[in-house]
């Protein structure tokens, strides 16, 4: 006979006479298993992460970002060269001014005077190719009255020619001959002392400038224990051409210009260069 008060909670083993516990709730069992599974998965992920960190290292960023190339070694130096020459030619301008009451007479007189001047220059060794007419003008000459309009009283004709005398030693005589041939109707001005080959003088100055820059560069390279390499750039920084001295017009105030000594001094051209060399 089974007691009515205990039939729901415990049963009695018929063969052994022992009580057995009731079966566990299935919902509690499933929750415990799910929790255990989540823990195992988390542990597996942590282990995988730790093991993966000990694997081969990823390529360093430095492999993709290569170090910048070293700047080439250079040496920059400047040099100044000078070259000189003595002027060997004389240039000047001869003016003829004639005033006559009639324009035709004034033009004819001016032509005759300029022709005499040019002939005298040719006789003193001036080449005809070095005589060049550079100007001609014809202007009326007015007389002004206090109460009346101005009236034309004549005409003034002017002619201008450029002259080149070489060698310079003949310059004074040529100027004197021009003034003597033209008399009071001729005037000489703009005397210039010229070097016949100024380009050659500047070429020597450039060579001297490069030589000076190279000499200084070799000194600095040797002092720093390096070798001077090829020229990378060369630039002309400044050039002062051979000057053209002008004889003051006051020196020609004399009646005979040949009495005025024309003496030329040495004139210089100057060049400055900047050169960049590679260092070995």
TrEMBL record:
> Which UniProt key words apply to this protein?
Membrane, Transmembrane, Transmembrane helix
Where is the stretch described as Disordered? Answer: 1-26, 57-80
InterPro entries of this UniProt entry? 26kDa_periplasmic_antigen, SIMPL/DUF541
Tell me the PANTHER family matching this sequence.
PERIPLASMIC IMMUNOGENIC PROTEIN, SLR1258 PROTEIN
- Feature: compositional bias, Low complexity: 57-73
Q: Membrane-spanning regions, if any?
A: 34-52
This chain belongs to the protein called: DUF541 domain-containing protein
User: Gly residues bias: where?
Assistant: 1-10
* Native source organism of the sequence: Nocardioides agri
The GO annotation for biological process reads: DNA damage response
Q: Tell me yes or no: is Membrane among this UniProt entry's keywords.
A: yes
The organism's taxonomy opens as: Bacteria, Bacillati, Actinomycetota, Actinomycetes, Propionibacteriales
């Amino acid at each position: 006979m089974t007691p009515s008060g205990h039939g729901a909670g415990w049963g009695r083993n018929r063969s052994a006479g022992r009580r057995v516990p009731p079966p566990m709730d299935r919902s509690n069992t499933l929750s415990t298993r799910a929790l255990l599974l989540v823990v195992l998965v988390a542990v597996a992920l942590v282990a995988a992460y730790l093991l993966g960190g000990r694997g081969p290292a990823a390529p360093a960023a430095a492999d993709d970002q290569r170090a910048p190339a070293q700047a080439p070694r250079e040496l920059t130096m400047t040099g100044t060269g000078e070259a000189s020459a003595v002027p060997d030619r004389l240039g000047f301008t001869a003016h003829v001014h004639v005033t006559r009451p009639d324009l035709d007479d004034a033009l004819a007189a001016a032509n005759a005077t300029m022709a005499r001047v040019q002939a005298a220059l040719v006789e003193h060794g001036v080449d005809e190719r070095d005589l060049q007419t550079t100007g001609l003008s014809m202007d009326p000459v007015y007389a002004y009255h206090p109460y009346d309009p101005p009236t034309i009283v004549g005409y003034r004709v002017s002619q201008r020619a450029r002259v080149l005398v070489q060698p310079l030693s003949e310059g004074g005589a040529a100027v004197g001959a021009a003034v003597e041939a033209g008399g009071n109707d001729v005037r000489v001005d703009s005397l210039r002392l010229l070097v016949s080959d100024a380009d050659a003088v500047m070429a020597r100055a450039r060579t001297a400038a490069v030589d000076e820059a190279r000499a200084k560069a070799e000194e600095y390279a040797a002092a720093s224990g390096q070798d001077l390499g090829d020229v990378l750039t060369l630039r002309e920084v400044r050039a002062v051409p051979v000057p053209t001295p002008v004889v003051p017009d006051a020196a020609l105030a004399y009646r005979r210009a040949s009495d005025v000594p024309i003496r030329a001094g040495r004139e210089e051209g100057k060049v400055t260069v900047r050169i960049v060399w590679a260092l070995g």
